[in-house]
Amino acid sequence: MTTAELTPFPSRSIFLGVDVGTGSARAGLFDENGKLLGSASSPIQIWKDGDCVEQSSTDIWHAVCAAVKSACSLANVSEVQVKGIGFAATCSLVAVDAEGSPVTVSWSGDSRRNIIVWMDHRAVKQAERINSYNSPVLQYCGGGVSPEMEPPKLLWVKENLHESWSMVYKWMDLSDWLSYRATGDDTRSLCTTVCKWTYLGHAHMHQMSEKASRDMEACGWDDEFWEEIGLGDLADGHHAKIGRSVAFPGHPLGNGLTATAAKELGLLAGTPVGTSLIDAHAGGVGVMESKLGSDSVTKESDVDTLCSRMVLVCGTSTCHMAVSREKLFIPGVWGPFWSAMVPEYWLTEGGQSATGALLDHIIENHVASPRLANRAASQKVSVFELLNNILKSTVQDTSSPFIAALTSDMHILPDFHGNRSPVADPNSKGVIFGMTLDTTEKQLALLYLATIQGIAYGTRHIVEHCNAHGHKIDTLLACGGLSKNPLFIQEHADIVGCPIILPRESESVLLGAAILGAVAAKSYPSLHDAMKALNAAGQVVHPSSDPKVKKYHDAKYRIFRDLYEQQLSHRAIICEALS
């Protein structure tokens, strides 16, 4: 950070983005050019017990306040300079009572644990039961709900925690709860409700022509669906518990920050707060309009450019976001969601439930992991960087034609937390093919590389599936923690066969959240205008030009696809044996 960046300019417009991920709350401050001035993070608590994963809204709010104050201090930004705030968060489910206090969603009865985290899979059976009804709303989420969506989780609580069910006054997505905690306005985002609650956002198509953004009466709930699945009571009071009003992302909420929230955050009361986004969708908003010099030449229009792109938001999990002007129904892929990310566009949302989490799992559970961690610490590099260096040395030692070929006899199906898309099978299991008794760091490096490749083959499967159903994706954009790993990005480029654009600013999710604040502050006429002004491209990573690399990955991709088909066959054999 330069001295110039640290010098306060009272006239500057600065926008604050807050992102609550799985393990931490982060805050970032951006200027009117979309440049990151400073960021900070604060850890958050998480409880894991089998399929149950829980957090605390109280703990998260404390972490948000700490991160905001630290970011402002690091960037030397005063509260007067912050013109707007936006929140993004994981699509976790928050339960509060009439006083706004937490209501437990945990078998433990611990009242702090009032959030069912997005990755929680306790409601697999409820999801299967909901999908068996074949409600018309399900066609807008790939043909069926996932246990990571909110209706199955709500049904699980109703069936298992009766006292909690009766106490809850509001059920909210985490990002909506954050904006509610900041403003006192419980208007829900079209992003959260449409993507995770089966809300039909296209019920508001006619309201796009209205000049002023406003909170709209929630007319997109399908009451027959809620009644059919056993949650008809959520329609009571004009859907008071799940959302009576909705708004487009970036719509200014209430009267801005309340006095209480402003004091806790170290900001000014009344600072505009924009309607929120899910974290992955904020990543899309933070990168999707990143322009290359050639874009204006090679594409017929901005619409064509936008609709030929897919954003990979790569963190604990990976979300695959693509937009289209027409609604595209794609089996096994969530959506089409109208205006859930970019206003007036239909969103297709693929995903892999464990990517960063899977790499951590593979590395940390290997016998060589402690030695590797100690070496990385002594060399002051990350474990990923050390593994990448081991792979480079191995290529030289073995005369392998290229790094990817080191895994010629190792193949991984990365479904360690089920398959979100495109086969939409939460019961799918991970597969590692090609293990030996070798426990060296070199063997761990090969396992790590094969895992990256397995994840990338999963992305290729999603891209091919989307293109087979009407998309025309030929360019990827990547953001999130894993996008900072050059091996991860190069393998994806080689395997998918598309160039990958990396953003100029490394914190795209925070930028996307900050853009919500900029729109709420009326600094831009619309979310899309703000994206065009504040998104910026950085490095472009191209696929290898070596035809041998393509031939190799085509072969491994066939094996990757076979691993799942074999699993289905094995599942059927065992099912018959036990019947």
How would you describe what is shown here?
The protein is α+β, with helices and mostly antiparallel strands. The longest helix has 32 residues, at 547-578. The protein has 21 helices and 22 strands. Strands 16-17-15-14-20-21-22 form a 7-stranded mixed sheet, sandwiched between helices. It has a 5-stranded mixed sheet with strand order 3-2-1-6-13. It has a domain at 14-280: 2-Layer Sandwich (Nucleotidyltransferase, domain 5). 40% of the residues lie in helices and 18% in strands.
List the helices and strands and how they pair.
Blueprint: H1 3-6, E1 14-20, E2 24-30, E3 36-43, E4 47-49, E5 52-55, H2 57-75, E6 82-89, E7 93-96, E8 115-116, H3 124-132, H4 150-160, H5 162-167, E9 170-173, H6 174-183, E10 188-189, H7 190-196, E11 216-217, H8 223-228, H9 236-239, E12 245-247, H10 259-265, E13 273-278, H11 279-287, H12 295-298, H13 302-307, E14 309-314, E15 318-324, E16 334-338, E17 346-352, H14 356-364, H15 369-379, H16 383-398, E18 411-413, E19 431-433, H17 441-468, E20 475-479, H18 486-496, E21 500-503, H19 508-520, H20 527-534, E22 537-541, H21 547-578
Parallel strand pairs: 1-6, 6-13, 10-12, 14-20, 20-21
Antiparallel strand pairs: 1-2, 2-3, 4-5, 5-8, 7-8, 7-9, 11-12, 14-15, 15-17, 16-17, 18-19, 21-22
Domain Carbohydrate kinase FGGY N-terminal: 15-286
InterPro entries: ATPase_NBD, Carb_kinase_FGGY, FGGY_C, FGGY_N, FGGY_RbtK-like
Domain Carbohydrate kinase FGGY C-terminal: 311-521
